[in-house]
Amino acid sequence: MTLISFYSLALSKFMKQAIKLRIIFMGTPLFAKEILEALIKNSYNIIAVFTQPDLPQGRKQEIVKSPVKILAETNQIPVYQPASLNDEVAEEIKKLKPDIIIVAAYGKILPPKILNIPGFGCINVHASLLPKFRGPSPIQNALLAGMKETGITIFLMNQGIDTGDILAQEKIKINPDDTAQSLSQKLSFLGAELLLKTLPPWVERKITPQKQDDSKTSLCQLIEREDGHIIWEEEAEKIYNKFRAFYPWPGIFGFWKNNDTLERLKFIKIKLENENSSAVTRSAGEVFKIGDEVAVQTMKGAIILEEIQPEGKKPMTAKDFIIGHPNFIGSVLE
User: Fold this and answer.
1) Which stretch of DSSP H or E encloses residue 56?
2) Which of 161, 234, 266, 326 is paired with 49 by a 20 to 30 Å CA distance?
3) Contact yes or no for 167/194 (Cβ under 8 A)
């Protein structure tokens, strides 16, 4: 038997096992959708999908399905959307007889009654290098902290929040221009790839779970809409990291006193100013021009505004904004 034939036989043998393995998948956003899609494409037997209830979004408050739900329905996989994981839901999961539950950005904490159901346990695909950034929004928090690298951790879930034993871990570099959106996409692909590499040896009992080093723990800041308010007394780099972390949601904003009216401005696109603007004395939040560009002074350095969205209006370039609002230059943002 050739080496290629041997590996083909081994792969075929495991794929038969994979098809028989009864999997419940729990997840909600695009990050989770990519991971579910990888499982489906690799012929894993997904018997049910759990995702968050449909919610109203946008100005029109239209009811929107999660990316995971859309994918599951497309592939005719039963979808469950419980408001809470109560005893009744636990009994329903028990009736499904899952061999394993895979969780990726689901948005709910699994109680012990559910954690103890599957024989191969509940495993989580988490977007950080645990024990760093335990909790929700690890991608945003890595960017807020100005981290140069992050990664994926696959771990065996327990009753704690992201405290379970590690099954696999892989790093990825964070580029200077990465946002929460771009980094989430990269990590979703990495998470899918690492999960596919981890599942076979885990099911074959070839992985020894490793304890986390609790002395290196860091926790995630919960992201809320008002966290996008820019404090101009902070350094330019910190403000830029906030923009990266909060793009596309919740976005960053500030307030401009237009004559006697305080107007909210959302900054859709910004960049760091490369020249040494600190040589000139300006107030933090003061708007000024550098050539054709519109800048805002910070405690250290400056930010270039590239795209602005006044409240209730469409986004526009900063250049177009000052054509209609020349008094914006020289004002001090709050």
Assistant:
1) strand 55-57
2) 161
3) no
What is the distance between the alpha carbons of residues 23 and 36, in angstroms, rounded to a whole number?
Answer: 11
Count of other CB atoms within 10 angstroms of residue 290:
13
> What are the structural domains, with CATH classification, of the chain?
12-216 (3.40.50.170), 225-328 (3.10.25.10)
The first and second tokens of residue 16, run together, are 């038969």
Query: Using one digit for the tens of pLDDT, what is the confidence trace for 18-37?
Result: 558 999 999 999 999 999 99
pLDDT for 82? 96
* AA letter at 58: G
pLDDT digits (tens, 9 = 90+) for 142-194: 999 999 999 999 999 999 999 999 999 999 999 999 999 999 999 999 999 99
DSSP 8-state assignment for residue 52: P
Q: Tokens for 229?
A: 């308010």
